[in-house]
Design goal:
The complex is a heterodimer.
Chain A: E1 11-20, E2 23-33, E3 38-42, H1 49-56, E4 64-69, E5 72-74, H2 79-84, E6 87-90, H3 102-107, E7 113-114, E8 121-122, H4 124-137, H5 154-167, E9 172-176, H6 184-199, E10 203-207, H7 211-217, E11 220-225, E12 228-234, H8 240-247, H9 251-263
Helix pairs in contact in A: 5-6
Chain B: H1 2-30, H2 34-51, H3 59-84, H4 92-109, H5 114-139, H6 143-166, E1 170-171, H7 180-188, E2 190-193, E3 196-199, H8 201-218, H9 220-230, H10 232-237, H11 242-268, E4 271-272, H12 279-289, H13 301-320, H14 328-350
Antiparallel strand pairs in B: 1-4, 2-3
Helix pairs in contact in B: 1-14, 2-13, 3-8, 3-9, 3-11, 3-12, 3-13, 4-5, 4-6, 4-11, 5-6, 5-11, 7-11, 8-9, 8-13, 12-13, 12-14
Chain lengths: 270, 354
């Protein structure tokens, strides 16, 4: 590992609490995101993963607790604020416009321009070139950046979103289940791009239901359950089995396995 | 680590091989206006065969269908930008009638300089466009419904107010107004080419098409139009001012309606409260024939201009062919049907099977 567990975090959540009505979505959760580390956020549905990333990406302000950027507390009024602080969120489907070309998507909202006055125009050549170079740097081979994003596979789309975030100065990348809808091969591609982002010194928050994906790429694992943190574990301090067990709710799964095993007809078991 | 590197290198080669085969065809098919260009060429050949000896091929025939196309094309080009931006504007037909009547009332009844009344009508048009846009964005309701409402409100107001003001529904004699001669030069002169007089409205149509295409493909604002129409939420997430873009596009369609009104009142030296009736639908038809998606996010201004060209060729072509003009609407409807079916097929092929 390039970074020590003790190196100072780029982004930190301290004792963050968030309630919606009388539902306590987060209860005193703390997370530290360090440069060059993939931090996996694990937990069942309703564990608070989505709320946590929405607090981090500026969608919801926390009720209590602090968000710290490079050690100093900040307050995000909107997703734009988080983006300016270098926290980019790549949503799987919301980030791309299928009928627009790859390079037009890449630069949407931040188009490079050339010329001046009434002749100020969208520098299409630069946009195409930068997009191609940046995607190649991430290991994505797209020769024709004018093809619509809709012609890309799910994994490629996700990867373009990651490359875009990196290019526009993201230091922390939040990936909300980027591999969820993907096949085995495709998921492998995305995991590789996550590794590239880590090599470039980004802090990555990776949310997934898939323990194999988490174990393959993660450096640090935080397990959430019913709005509380069950703890943060470094990869060298834990095992794949322990992570799988915690993700699935541990004891609950064993019980379920036992129950199913008992009731299954013997001739279908092998 | 080495294993994954080899893996990546292999991936570098593989998708490119597949790209090479479909690249050119796909790229061509992806242009929204391809279907319309082929359709326009086919229609021209058809009318050249059935009506070539009765004047369709003559320069005068060409000028006549280009003029019809120009009046619709000016509207259609603006509407194409709005529809790519994901919205409709049904109120432009009434806006033509309203703008024409404002000019006529101010310059005929109140004897104002025609350029002053044109400016007044322009301001009203921009205001109407802005109101359409603001109501649509503020309410979150479909623009189809909001502008259907303003379609009737504007038409009704034009008829009612004109009758209160003048006791009539038509006004003539605009050629006596101050400033008319210059207006006639700018909006209704003819350019002699190849022995025929081509109305200057054709130049306005070509110029606006070029301008809209440039905005769409070569400015950040054009990229925002595609983004706002393609996926509003995603566009907003990356900082596109979606509301501003869309309201501005509503202003553009209203201004296009104003320009058509100016051209018409200058040419006919008068106004009629019913001018522009149904033009909103013809404009949408031209835009759709031109390959723009009804759902937004995809299309072209050139396509809309070609859609208008098709409209003009059919409208004048069936006259030259000696067919009863009653059949025009049947032709038009059938063409819309063919166009949307072809567009759907082309888009599906272009987007691949995924």
């Amino acid at each position: 590992m390039m970074t020590e567990s003790g190196s100072s975090p780029m982004v930190e959540l301290r004792n963050v609490t968030k309630s919606f009505g009388n539902v306590r979505a987060l209860q005193g959760v703390s997370v530290r995101i360090v440069s060059g580390e993939v931090h996996c956020l694990l937990g069942d549905n309703g564990a608070g993963k989505s709320t946590l990333i929405k607090v981090l990406s500026g969608v919801h302000p926390p009720d209590n607790g602090d968000i710290l950027i490079d050690g100093s507390p900040v307050r995000f009024g909107s997703p734009r604020d988080a983006l300016h602080a270098g926290i980019a969120t790549a949503y799987q489907d919301l980030a791309m416009i299928p009928l627009m070309s790859v390079s037009r998507n890449f630069f949407l909202g931040a188009e490079p321009v050339k010329g001046w006055g009434p002749f100020r125009r969208f520098d299409v050549t630069t946009a195409d070139e930068v997009t191609r170079v940046e995607l190649n740097r991430m290991g994505i081979a797209i020769r024709d950046t004018s093809q619509p994003v809709g012609t890309l596979s799910g994994g490629e789309r996700q990867s373009v979103a990651i490359a875009r975030a990196v290019y526009f100065g993201a230091r922390v990348l939040i990936l909300d289940e980027p591999t969820a809808a993907l096949g085995v091969k495709e998921a492998g591609v995305v995991l590789r791009y996550i590794a590239r982002a880590r090599e470039q010194g980004l802090g990555v928050i990776f949310i997934t239901h898939n323990a194999h994906h988490a174990w393959a790429i993660g450096d640090v694992f935080t397990v959430l359950s019913r709005g509380r943190s069950l703890g943060t574990f470094r990869k060298e301090e834990t095992t794949r089995e322990a992570i799988i067990s915690m993700m699935a709710g541990g004891a609950a799964l064993e019980e379920l396995e036992h129950e199913l095993g008992q009731h299954a007809p013997p001739h279908t078991r092998d | 680590m080495t294993a994954s590197q080899i893996d990546i290198e292999q991936r570098d080669v593989e998708p490119d091989d597949r790209l090479q085969q479909t690249h050119v065809v796909r790229r061509l098919l992806l242009r929204p206006e391809v279907g319309a260009i082929i359709g326009a060429a086919a229609l021209w050949v058809y009318f050249a065969i059935v009506a070539g000896d009765t004047g369709f091929l003559s320069m005068r025939g060409t000028a006549s269908y280009l003029e019809v196309s120009a009046h619709l094309g000016i509207l259609a080009v603006a509407v194409s930008l709005l529809m790519i931006g994901g919205e409709f504007d049904l109120s432009i037909g009434s806006m033509i009638g309203a703008a024409g009547m404002i000019i006529a009332i101010l310059s005929v009844e109140h004897e104002l300089n025609m350029w002053v009344s044109m400016l007044a009508a322009l301001l009203v048009a921009m205001l109407v466009g802005a109101i359409n846009g603001v109501i649509v964005r503020w309410s979150g309701l479909p623009s189809f419904i909001i502008t259907l409402a303003t379609l009737f409100i504007i038409r009704g107001l034009t008829i009612a107010l004109t009758r209160i003001e003048t006791g009539r529904t038509q006004l003539g004699g605009l050629d006596d107004a101050a400033g008319y001669d210059l207006a006639k030069q700018v909006f209704d002169s003819n350019i002699d080419l190849f022995g025929a007089a081509f109305p200057i409205s054709i130049a306005w149509w070509f110029g606006l098409t070029a301008l809209a295409t440039w905005v769409l493909l070569r400015t950040p604002f054009g990229n925002w139009i595609f983004g706002a129409g393609g996926n509003e939420q995603a566009a907003r997430n990356v900082g596109v001012p979606v509301n501003r873009v869309k309201i501005l596009l509503f202003v553009c369609t209203a201004v296009a309606a104003w320009l058509v009104a100016v051209i018409q009142v200058t040419a006919t030296t008068g106004a009629d409260v019913l001018r522009g009736t149904q033009q909103e639908f013809f404009a949408i038809i031209a835009v759709v024939i031109g390959g723009t998606l009804l759902t937004g996010g995809y299309g072209s201004a050139i396509g809309a201009a070609i859609g208008a060209l098709i409209f003009g060729m059919v409208r004048q072509g069936i006259v030259y062919a000696g067919v009863d003009a009653d059949w025009f609407q049947v032709f038009l409807g059938v063409m819309v049907l063919i166009a949307v079916l072809i567009n759907r097929y082309v888009r599906q092929r272009a987007m691949g099977a995924r």
